[in-house]
Amino acid sequence: MIGLLIFLSLSNEIRIINLLNGLELDRAQKERIIALATSAQKLHREYESEKEGLEAEIEPLLQELKEVLIEHDPIPSHLRKSIHRVEEKLIRLRAEYHSRLDSLAQLLTECLRPEQIYVIETYQPCLIPPPGEAKIGQSEKPLGIYHLLDRIRKMPEPVYQRNRDRIIERVAERIVLHAPPWQKLDQKLLKREIGKIFDRTRSLTPLEYSIQREELAEYLKGFTHRPGSDLEPKIRKFLLSEEVIDLLKRSSQ
């Protein structure tokens, strides 16, 4: 059986390959990304080394604190100060590391074309890219949303008015459930916008709907992904990773 670590490593490489295939980088961009990713890995090694040193420093202090608390003794002033001192060092180290990593991500962003930035913003990682235009490992069309809008249009008016709020509530719940953890959604605004989309879907003529169907579906789909909201996290995860260095070198041969 394939080991878990091997599976995770291969899966991550495949997701990076899918993104790289969609970006269609030129040689200069590849060289720039390799250089920035190499700097990011050097920075990561330095961070981990310093962090391990501070963790080794705080471990005996925490062991001492544990014994004090078990015995219900007052915490000595020197112990309290020592723990706070090391904690502050860890916080500063982490903040500095992420700040420098953000700077590398910004430099990488500056070497990309606008359409490539859009590819990264809208990239939804998966292992097997679907056929057709969507060759970067994400769903080609929001078929489930198409079907939902089609059902909304076909409902008799009394049935729609009777069930409108309940359907909106269920759709909003699904959007919130599948939204990324970093995304905060205003549910009242969300329900209002969903209602507008449903009402507009029903108001269109058959010809208008056939023209605007994809736009309406993409707008509804957009509630679970706002372009630009996670550009830098994706750049850090995929394009400043250790794996991308070898993958880009191989693709340049």
Index terms:
253 residues, mainly alpha, 2 domains, 76% helix, coiled coil
Averaged pLDDT, please?
86
Q: What number of structural domains do the residues give? A: 2
Computed structural class: mainly alpha
Task: Provide the low-confidence segments as ranges.
Answer: 132-140
Rg from C-alpha positions? 25 Å
Question: Termini, distance in Å?
Answer: 33 Å
- Beta content comes to under 5%
Helix content, binned percent: over 70%
Quaternary form = single chain
Q: What does this protein structure show overall?
A:
This protein is mostly helical and 253 residues long. Helix content is 76%, strand content 0%. Helix 2 runs antiparallel to helix 10 and helix 3 packs across helix 9. Mean pLDDT is 86; it is low at 132-140.
In short:
The chain has 10 helices and no strands. With 253 residues, the protein is mostly helical. About 4% of the residues have low confidence.
SSE blueprint:
Blueprint (H helix, E strand, L loop, with lengths): L3 H20 L3 H44 L6 H34 L3 H8 L21 H12 L2 H22 L8 H17 L2 H16 L9 H9 L2 H10 L2
Keywords: Coiled coil
